[in-house]
């Protein structure tokens, strides 16, 4: 982890706090709010997500004026915003977060991802501050823990990690903590009764984002185009390999499909390669051949 001190000015911290606290009191469903189980009356969110997506004008301006943009560009060549959330710890209920690695919990493993955790209030051991495991070389197995069933976490004993090896990250308001996606981290209970608000913002390299998401967009396009060829079939993104071989029975339709695929994605397999293996993997792998 890298600790950058006093990156965000008091004025900009307050602007972010005002936005987040207002959003947490009247959470829009688009912010995917989370609440404490015991909070049946006040319904104040302890976590809100998709902040930038919800208000891009405000946050684009905030990123630029807070110098966060410049800090991000120091770490990533061509950054792309992946996640933007805020954690609000008001009290001890459910506020302990066990050791985990973001990369192990995401649907896609973004190795280039960097988290920029902005402390909008002081973050200390007693008010729910962060702790982390310094060795980030290994992606550990993650399992559900009945003591904290919200998501999978790292079993310390099973993985040979002692609590003495965990390091507290004590931050002043305005500090930014930066860590790569493999860094195992968590946070303490808020025992102080004081607010602890942090804003994790995750960026990845744009090239890696497109590479990992390319196959998803490819599946959507293939399914749509196969439906136009076989309109009476129940084609979905999950059964493409069942219908792609049927293209080989219709030479003109197959050639037209591959030509359209090439225009859409900038590459396509050779006709004889596709006939030999008419599968999604063949279409996807043609990108590597085009770049050689």
TrEMBL record:
Example GO molecular function: 2-oxoglutarate-dependent dioxygenase activity
Cofactors that this protein relies on: Fe(2+)
Matches recorded under Pfam families: PhyH
The keyword Oxidoreductase appears for this protein: yes
InterPro entries, per database record: Phytyl_CoA_dOase-like
Top-rank lineage group of the source organism: Bacteria
Stored PANTHER family: ECTOINE DIOXYGENASE, PHYTANOYL-COA DIOXYGENASE DOMAIN CONTAINING 1
Protein name: Phytanoyl-CoA dioxygenase family protein
Organism encoding this protein: Pseudomonas aeruginosa
Lineage of the organism: Bacteria, Pseudomonadati, Pseudomonadota, Gammaproteobacteria, Pseudomonadales
């Amino acid at each position: 982890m890298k600790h950058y001190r006093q990156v965000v000015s008091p004025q900009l911290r307050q602007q972010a706090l005002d936005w987040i606290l207002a959003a947490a009191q009247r959470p829009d469903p688009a912010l995917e709010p989370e609440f404490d189980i015991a909070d049946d009356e006040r319904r104040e969110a302890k976590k809100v997500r998709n902040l930038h997506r919800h208000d891009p004008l405000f946050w684009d301006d905030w990123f630029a004026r807070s110098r966060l943009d410049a800090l991000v560009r120091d770490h990533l060549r061509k950054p792309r915003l992946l996640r933007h959330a805020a954690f609000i710890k008001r009290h001890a209920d459910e506020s302990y977060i066990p050791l985990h690695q973001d990369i192990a919990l995401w649907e896609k493993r973004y190795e280039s991802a960097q988290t920029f955790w902005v402390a909008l209030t002081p973050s200390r051991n007693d008010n729910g501050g962060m702790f982390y495991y310094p060795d980030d070389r290994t992606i550990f197995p993650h399992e559900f823990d009945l003591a904290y069933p919200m998501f999978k976490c790292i079993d310390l004993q099973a993985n040979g990690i002692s609590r003495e090896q965990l390091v507290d990250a004590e931050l002043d308001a305005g500090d930014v903590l930066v860590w790569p996606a493999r860094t195992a981290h968590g946070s303490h209970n808020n025992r102080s009764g004081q607010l602890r608000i942090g804003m994790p913002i995750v960026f990845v390299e744009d090239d890696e984002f497109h590479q990992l998401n390319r196959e998803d967009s490819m599946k959507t396009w293939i399914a749509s185009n196969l439906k136009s060829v076989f309109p009476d079939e129940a084609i979905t993104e999950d059964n493409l390999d069942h219908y792609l071989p049927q293209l080989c029975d219709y030479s003109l339709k197959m050639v037209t499909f591959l030509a359209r695929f090439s225009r859409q994605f900038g590459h396509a397999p050779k006709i004889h390669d596709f006939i030999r293996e008419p599968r999604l993997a063949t279409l996807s792998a043609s990108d590597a051949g085009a770049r050689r």
